[in-house]
């Protein structure tokens, strides 16, 4: 198979690494990719936003499958435009990607199909949003409707914080994404990420993970794209997975099909496990980054076989197997992240730091004058497997400490919640 992978982060490096292990693969291209992905794929210069150019590349290079990593191109309709040209794609249509692209759309679907989620209101103007918040009280959650790169959500513990967040949404801080606002009930419980591969009709459970969104140890500091993750999530017991499939994923799949937007691709449910069971916080319509990295380390089966089955509507006849091992990934970020990360610092010792059960996935890296340099906020994902989360954590930090990059930093406590559980057993 000749495959084109779209994206340039650690998520896409992990996908490239796993696809490269498939006996089905004859040629992998990536656009734009990064130096790590470049070890597995031929990097292509193309404007991803120019869907006609991407389609032309696929025709000229006889691409059998396009795998889309990030949400941006999906929400922009790349899957529709390629399929219209007869090109096979793993990823949802623009209409189905509204599950991620519009929080209001998802909340309305949940209400219609009885999917458990936080109580909410949708507002297009400040005065009515303000009135709802004043009436409901704090704690309360304020969300810009559209894609805001993970920054459009405020969990307000006081009314004052809620008022400030509403002002920020309506004064244009999030651009168009904030023109509409969802105000939600504050949910209490443990968060978990749950993934499914979907083919429009069938959803196949595809692993669990937990991530660390906050910048600093102890889950403090500002929100980021994610500073680390591990899989599996201990809170997602087989019973909890069954309930999540029955109460959340299956009604969503039915709802999307009935709405005329059957969902195919990765359905990533951000869950709050409350004392009443799983509740949906949000959907994403692609793999999480860095959750994908830990899932790929644990996946026993051939990823390309599974992506093909999803693209062809064959998931009802497919199963998936996982290694018993846990996996954990630590993000190394460039000084200044999540604000303005410093670019250009030299990173040494990456190749030597990897080893048995340890992979180092590249995110924001570049080659400059033959040297590997930082070229973004989140730069490397040090990923390891072990019999327990604790063992995987030890291996990941030991590898990380072999990397010579004074301008990089990381959290030192990735996996702490799972570790506390393991130690209390
Ligand atoms: P989201 O971008 O919707 O995933 O929200 C980012 C983070 O905000 C989530 O990972 C949760 O930690 C928190 N959050 C979002 N919605 C709620 C809610 N209704 N109750 C409590 N926490 C929430």
Can you describe this structure?
This protein is α+β, with helices and mostly antiparallel strands and about 425 residues long. It contains 14 helices and 22 strands. The strands form five sheets. Strands 10, 11, 14, 15, 16, 17, 18, 21 and 22 form a nine-stranded antiparallel β-sheet that branches. The longest helix has 21 residues, at about 240-260. It is globular and about 60 Å long. The model has no long low-confidence stretch (mean pLDDT about 95). It binds adenosine monophosphate.
Characteristic key phrases:
425 residues; 9-stranded antiparallel beta sheet; alpha+beta; 14 helices; binds adenosine monophosphate; 5-stranded parallel beta sheet; single chain
Gist of the model:
This protein is of the alpha+beta class. It contains 14 helices and 22 strands. β7 and β8 form a beta hairpin.
């Amino acid at each position: 198979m000749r495959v084109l992978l779209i994206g340039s982060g650690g998520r896409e490096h992990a996908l490239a690494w796993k696809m490269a292990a498939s006996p089905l693969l004859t040629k992998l291209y990536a656009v734009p990719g990064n130096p790590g992905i470049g070890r597995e794929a031929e990097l292509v210069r193309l404007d991803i936003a120019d869907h006609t150019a991407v389609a032309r590349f696929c025709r000229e290079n006889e691409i059998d499958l396009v795998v889309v990593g990030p949400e941006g191109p999906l929400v922009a309709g790349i899957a529709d435009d390629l399929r219209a040209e007869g090109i096979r794609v793993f990823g949802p249509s623009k209409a189905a990607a509204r599950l991620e692209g519009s929080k209001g759309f998802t909340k309305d679907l949940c209400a219609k199909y009885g999917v458990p989620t936080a109580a909410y209101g949708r507002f297009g103007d400040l005065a009515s949003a303000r009135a709802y918040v004043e009436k409901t009280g704090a704690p309360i959650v304020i969300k810009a409707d559209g894609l805001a790169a993970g920054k459009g959500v405020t969990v307000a513990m006081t009314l004052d914080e809620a008022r400030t967040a509403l002002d920020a949404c309506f004064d244009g801080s999030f651009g168009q994404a904030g023109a509409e606002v969802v105000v939600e009930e504050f949910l209490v419980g443990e968060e978990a990420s749950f993934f499914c591969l979907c083919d429009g009709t069938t959803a196949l459970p595809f692993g669990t993970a937990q991530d660390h969104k906050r910048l600093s140890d102890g889950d403090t500091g500002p929100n980021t794209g994610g500073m680390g993750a591990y899989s599996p999530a201990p809170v997602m017991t087989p019973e909890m997975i069954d309930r999540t499939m029955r109460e959340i994923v299956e009604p969503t799949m039915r709802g999307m099909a009935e709405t005329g937007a059957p969902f195919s691709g990765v359905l990533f449910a951000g869950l709050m496990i409350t004392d009443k069971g799983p509740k949906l916080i949000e959907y994403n319509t692609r793999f999480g980054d860095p959750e994908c990295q830990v899932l790929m380390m644990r996946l026993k089966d051939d990823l390309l076989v599974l992506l093909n089955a999803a693209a062809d509507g064959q998931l009802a006849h497919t199963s998936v197997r996982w290694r018993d091992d846990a996996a954990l990934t630590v993000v190394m970020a460039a000084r200044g992240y999540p604000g303005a990360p410093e670019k250009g610092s030299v990173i040494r010792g990456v190749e030597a730091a990897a080893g048995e059960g340890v992979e180092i996935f590249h995110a924001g890296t570049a080659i400059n004058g033959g040297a590997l340099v930082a070229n973004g906020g989140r730069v490397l994902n040090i990923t390891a497997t072990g019999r327990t989360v604790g063992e995987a954590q030890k291996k990941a930090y030991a590898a990380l400490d072999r990397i010579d990059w004074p301008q990089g930093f990381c959290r030192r406590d990735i996996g702490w919640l799972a570790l506390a559980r393991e130690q209390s057993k």
